[in-house]
TrEMBL record:
Domain called Alpha-L-arabinofuranosidase C-terminal: residue spans: 290-504
Pfam family of the protein (one): Alpha-L-AF_C
Domain of life: Bacteria
Full protein name: non-reducing end alpha-L-arabinofuranosidase
Length: 511
């Protein structure tokens, strides 16, 4: 198979938003306990945080971390998680049918976030709670001192305010599974009132209203329109959540999951802009895609027996293979390509729970296949996102009809002169030779594999591929699926030619 595309610095979409590379830490399964926090672990620091997980979080290149849920937040009392640990109550977590010991709360999380060098993004409970509790949490976190709750934070050991900017107004309130689930009108009113009052405390907050839990929700589209009719002038973002999985052995459809994400984003942008037009507003609402990932939900064993009330049970611990990483790479390409309107995103989640990082309690921590596309995109996407408009063969899928075999996006950093192309080959059995016209980048010298395009004249190609699309990494074999140098890249005239193996994620750097 062959394909071609053109790189031109004039084809700008928007700047790369660092917040595209957010993730998510929920009190769910082993994400917090034995994930980021395990005081008895050999690598634990003075605060009980696993140093190995902190290191991997940095390597992953995470910008923002959403906390503390997810479904969990809709039953959460944040006050349970502050003060001396030995006095904190254990509570039933109805969302995940677990026991929450509250050993980690907002103070520990912010301490962890500082160590991991990530921006905390907080969610407030709009399920069992409402406006007053949201204001209390905001006061506790962001007011420097001199009020009951800010002084309580200081008494609990945090002299400086947390300065948390991004706040989610509840979680998935469209979902019947959500504790305190609401109609769009009920939720829209509540979100508007909570947002209005939170802005009275700090008008520079960035507030996220809940959009749909997936594009297949029966209320999709109508939910966003109604919520924004109520809350448009009070919020900055509407959220999107989407999880994908291979169903019925249909790998071709699965690798094209980004088709749904593209459609999801375009539909929510159109809906938000339509509401904005009707309100005669000049303001634009952006998208916070604050839950996205591969999740084998259909294989998920139901929980819910009375005996399930345990601390940090093994829940949602999906093990990812190469094809999952390639599908996830496609989702990253989709998010980047929509950088003009998707200005924040969170891979759900960070550790153990549908996560790129896996830990053994008391033992090793390792990288799943999906770690690699995320880490590479976070590391190398810089400057401006460029449209690339590939011309390539299509294939038929049961889920989405005809889909291009190649999906791609590029970024260009004017300051460093570096251009990076991210590509997936969705063909399950054929390699794809891609010709990239790079003449518009300037300074193209004909030459060999390394030595022609970009300021320093180097071309580097890596590929994530395997003879088995279902190959996985494990604790004992953590390097089975990792990015490797792709020798099949060359430069001739103004064209970079690269061969992408079937089912592969590829990064080409011109620098
Ligand atoms: O990320 C796992 C769960 O998926 C979250 O708790 C919820 O918001 C979503 O349904």
């Amino acid at each position: 198979l062959t394909a071609r595309m053109t790189l031109d610095p004039a084809f700008r979409v928007a700047p790369v938003n660092r917040r595209t590379f957010g993730t998510f830490v929920e009190h769910l399964g082993r994400c917090v306990y034995t994930g980021i926090y395990e005081p008895d672990h050999p690598s634990a620091d003075d605060d009980g945080f696993r140093a190995d997980v902190l290191e991997l979080t940095k390597e992953l290149g995470v910008s923002t971390v959403r906390y503390p849920g997810g479904n969990f937040v809709s039953g959460y009392r944040w006050e349970d998680g502050i003060g001396p640990v030995e006095s904190r109550p254990a509570r039933l977590d109805l969302a995940w049918h677990s026991l929450e010991p509250n050993h980690v709360g907002i103070d520990e999380f912010v301490r962890w976030a500082r160590k991991a060098d990530v921006e905390p993004m907080m969610a407030v409970n709009l399920g069992t709670r409402g406006l007053q509790e949201a204001l209390d949490l905001l006061e506790y976190c962001n007011i420097p001192s001199g009020t009951r709750l800010s002084d309580l934070r200081i008494a609990n050991g945090a002299k400086d305010p947390y300065g948390i900017t991004m706040w989610c107004l509840g979680n998935e309130m469209d979902g019947p599974w959500q504790i305190g689930h609401k109609t769009a009108r009920e939720y829209g009113r509540l979100a508007a009132e909570v947002a209005r009052a939170m802005r009275m405390v700090d008008r520079n907050l960035e507030l996220v209203a809940c959009g749909s839990s997936s594009s297949s929700m029966p209320t999709f589209g109508a939910w966003e329109a109604t919520v924004l009719e109520e809350a448009y002038e009070h919020v900055d973002y509407i959220s999107c959540h989407a999880y994908y999985e291979e169903r019925d052995g249909d790998l071709g459809s699965f690798l094209a999951s980004a088709t749904d994400m593209d459609h999801f984003i375009a539909s929510v942008v159109a809906t938000a802009d339509h509401v904005g037009a009707r309100l005669r507003s000049r303001k634009k609402i952006n998208i916070s895609f604050d839950e996205w990932n591969i999740w084998y939900m259909s294989r998920h064993v139901a929980y819910g027996g009375p005996s399930d009330w345990s601390v940090a049970p093994q829940l949602l611990e999906d093990r990812y293979h190469l094809a999952d990483a390639v599908a996830l790479g496609g989702l990253l390409i989709s998010l980047l390509r929509h950088s003009d309107r998707v200005t924040a995103a969170c891979l759900a989640q960070l550790v153990n729970v549908i996560a790129p990082i896996v830990t053994e309690p008391g033992g090793r921590a390792w990288r799943q296949t999906t770690f690699h596309p995320f880490a590479q995109a976070s590391r190398y996407a810089a400057g401006e996102v460029l449209r690339v408009e590939p011309v390539c063969p299509v294939y038929e899928t049961a889920a989405y009809g005809e889909v291009p075999v190649l999906d791609a996006v590029a970024t260009r950093d004017e300051e460093t002169g570096e251009t990076t192309i991210f590509m997936i080959n969705r063909s399950v059995d054929q390699s794809l030779t891609v010709d990239v016209d790079v003449r518009a980048l300037g300074a193209v010298k004909p030459g060999g594999r390394s030595g022609s395009v970009g300021r320093g004249g180097a071309v580097e190609a890596t590929v994530l591929a395997d003879s088995d699309p279902y190959a996985r990494n494990t604790a004992d074999d953590p390097l089975r699926v990792v990015p490797r140098a792709n020798p099949e890249v060359r430069v001739e005239g103004g064209t970079v030619t690269v061969v992408l193996p079937p089912v592969s994620w590829n990064v080409i750097r011109l620098h």
